Amino acid sequence: MASKPSLTHQATLMLLFLTWRGGIYCNGFTVDPPENLVILDPGHFGHLEITWTPPASLINRAECPKLYQLEYFNAYKGSWTVIRTSRRSYSAQFDLMKDVRVRVYTLLNGPCTNNTMIKSTNYTEVVQKPSSTGVAGITVKDFVCVFHNMEKMVCNWGRNPKIPANSQQNLYFWHRELEQAEECPKYILSGGVRSGCDFTGKALPDFTDINFCINGSSPQGPLKPTYASLQIQNHVKPGTAEKLHLQTGPDTRLEVQWERPVGSVPGQCLEWEVEYSQEGPDGKMTSQQIFTEEMNLTLPLNDDYRRSCVRVRSKLHKYCVNKGLWSEWSHPACHPATSTSPHESR
Ligand SMILES: *[C@@H]1O[C@H](CO)[C@@H](O)[C@H](O)[C@H]1NC(C)=O
Ligand SMILES: *[C@@H]1O[C@H](CO)[C@@H](O)[C@H](O)[C@H]1NC(C)=O
Ligand SMILES: *[C@@H]1O[C@H](CO)[C@@H](O)[C@H](O)[C@H]1NC(C)=O
After folding, report:
1. What InterPro entries would the database entry show (predicted)?
2. Considering only CA atoms, which residue is closest to atom 5 of ligand 1?
């Protein structure tokens, strides 16, 4: 309670300060927010086109250079994105399963405002709710895409147990190079129902959003669509390393070499995890992980150990992509090559 009067007092001071600043710097100029803010959905699963017009009070004032400040809620990042543009349209990616919120302000400069930049105090806003069509509460779970060795893109989704029997699900996708959304080229079936899409032979561009929509029909009506958006370079799972080779070097060292998987994964983008496991004299296994960007490594070899084994796996490192997936582990290579431990021999 005690802080209440002081807060009010502060607010009054702030108001006075703003008015004073307005008087000094803005010379009392004001400008109206833009009009006719419209969000257009061309059916690209979240890639929306936003358009607006200048405020009517400025239509015939060509001498006033206009800029617009567009703010939209980026549901992927959970924060507002702010851009300034002199154009009257802008395209951005939205998550259609969440509210789409867009605000636009007018900014004015030049002789009209005595060369001071002013911004409309108010904004024009559109809030668009997610489409409510479809059997409620039934969206696809666990939509996961993997770009195997940068050759074969496969997306899978989990079956929602609430989905009505005899439903048919469809996957559509769109990216910048397509005029219209296309349907999955080859569905993956599990237990007779669609559970994924195999894009083999269908080239998808990297470093640009690929938007997906999984919708469908059921005896109870259309299924609620699920939307997803991703960039394929962040879903690369390299092939398995090949020709893993061990050699004992001088001074009881183990020299390890391997080759990267054949294919189009750029070698300079790979980082490797090497797992070095050793079986002690008492049969106890110990292992350590080593990370490297080289395709060879020298490891210390302790003769007291019965056996030492190495296996490797790789992923694209963060200098090349935002996110990489680990490859499968290679077959292990061991020294000595054949097991001498009694419980492992058959
Ligand atoms: C315009 O700004 C200049 C200083 O930048 C000031 O001297 C002048 O009085 C202003 N004119 C008007 C009409 O406010
Ligand atoms: C700002 O605009 C909203 C509608 O877009 C309106 O409800 C509100 O009264 C406006 N505020 C001012 C200060 O003009
Ligand atoms: C699924 O989406 C596609 C592409 O937008 C559309 O052509 C199709 O009619 C939709 N199917 C259903 C069952 O809603």
Report:
1. FN3_dom, FN3_sf, Ig-like_fold, TypeI_recpt_CBD
2. 114
* Ligand 3 centre distance from Cα of residue 143 (Å): 18
Give bridge partners of residue 247 from the DSSP assignment.
Answer: 255
For residue 246, count CB atoms less than 10 angstroms from its CB and return exposed for 0-12, middle for 13-18, buried for 19 or more.
Answer: buried
pLDDT band per the 50, 70, 90 thresholds, residue 317: very high
Closest by Cα among 67, 62, 150, 141 to 97: 141
- Does the structure show a pLDDT above 80 at 61? no
Q: Can you give the pLDDT at residue 8?
A: 44
CA of 116, nearest ligand number: 1
Q: How far apart are CA 168 and CA 184, in angstroms?
A: 13
pLDDT in tens, 158-178: 887 777 778 899 999 999 999
Tokens of 160: 């929602």
Q: What's the pLDDT band for 339 if we cut at 50, 70, 90?
A: low
The rounded distance, in Å, linking the Cα atoms of 198 and 145 is 10
Q: Is 184 in the pocket of ligand 3 (CB under 6 A)?
A: no
The answer, yes or no, to whether any atom of ligand 1 lies below 6 A from the CB of 27, is: yes
Cα of 122 to ligand 2 centre, how many Å? 6
